[in-house]
Amino acid sequence: MTENDEQTALILLGCPQVPVQTSMALYLVHGLREQGIRPVVAGTPAARKLMETADPSRHYLSEMADLDDAIDAIAEKQRDFDLCFVFIHNDSGVAYAGTMAYISKARLYALLFGEHAEELAGEIEFPCEVVAAKAVHNPMPLKRRLDEVMQWAVSKR
Fold this sequence. Notes:
With 157 residues, the chain is an alpha/beta fold. The protein has a single domain (3-155), classed as Rossmann fold (3-Layer(aba) Sandwich), CATH 3.40.50. Helix content is 43%, strand content 20%. Helix 1 (20-34) crosses helix 2 (45-54). The model has no long low-confidence stretch (mean pLDDT 91).
């Protein structure tokens, strides 16, 4: 792969109501960068503020965008990504992932977490890799599942 062939990944963050989202998003950004994949974080204003506060020197966060603006750019064919990770803890997260499955060419990963992760996983009726763990305050169950998937994702490059 040459420098011009750099892979990109979009990380979509909804409402940061469940505590593990921010730490897991930063962990994912770190892992992607370690693999030479350029991450772009798109989220709600609150989700972006939490990410910026957690990484004030921008060691991990290089590009951030508004969630709706990022989706609009993909829908209008102005931009797309190789990988897309959607953090999901409620029905609207499932809807965002479904939208991405329809408008983007990216390999899609639905990262479901929170008290009802398994139930939400049952609502997914579009093609994607499902990563689900009942993680609310402790990120380790989701981290373990994500580590398994990332080994698979990296091997598909």
